[in-house]
Structure prediction request, 220 residues.
Amino acid sequence: MDVRIEESWKTKLRAEFESSFFAALTDFVKAEYKKVTVYPPGRDIFRAFDLCPFPAVKVVILGQDPYHGPGQANGLCFSVGTGVDFPPSLVNIFQEIRQDLGREPTTDQTLESWARQGVLLLNSTLTVRAGAPTSHAGRGWEEFTDRVLAILGQEKENLVFMLWGAYAQRKGAFLDEKKHLVLKSPHPSPLSAYRGFFGSKPFSRANAYLESHAKTPIDW
Prediction:
């Protein structure tokens, strides 16, 4: 199957794109876009990969589901487009940057500058029905993104994985913590941020680790 995705990822994921599960997933997603409103726009489904080629990946931030409100989802987890109100989780992420690094974040709500520096902003499920969170769960996206994480974990070294919340931690439980830095904390949502996300210092810890392995830190 010819999937429109950045070339290095197309090469790495070729087996997945030719698999029966991905064919079934594609049929489901195409049918959904034809009959209901689905986010993100079709052109942005693989945007996280397009902005962050495989060789460039240094950090992976794992989300669960795209935002399901109008104009929010754009293919990067936790991100929204320019001019869109900040979702509560992103407000808390930026608050932690201020507390952790002692300065304002250097990016805007699109988080594109992070992606272009090597931060893969990956949702577990890449599409969702409008107004219906987790509506595309269990259709094959999770198998696909599990494979993405496995390839990263196996083929690269000294990555930083940020696993915020129980869902992300379960999904990344197989990652080799001797080979990579796996940062675990509660989710940045208002329901859990005060239970340990605030004060977890993921951004300074990530940069210290990258620098210790001769990698350029992220300008958060």
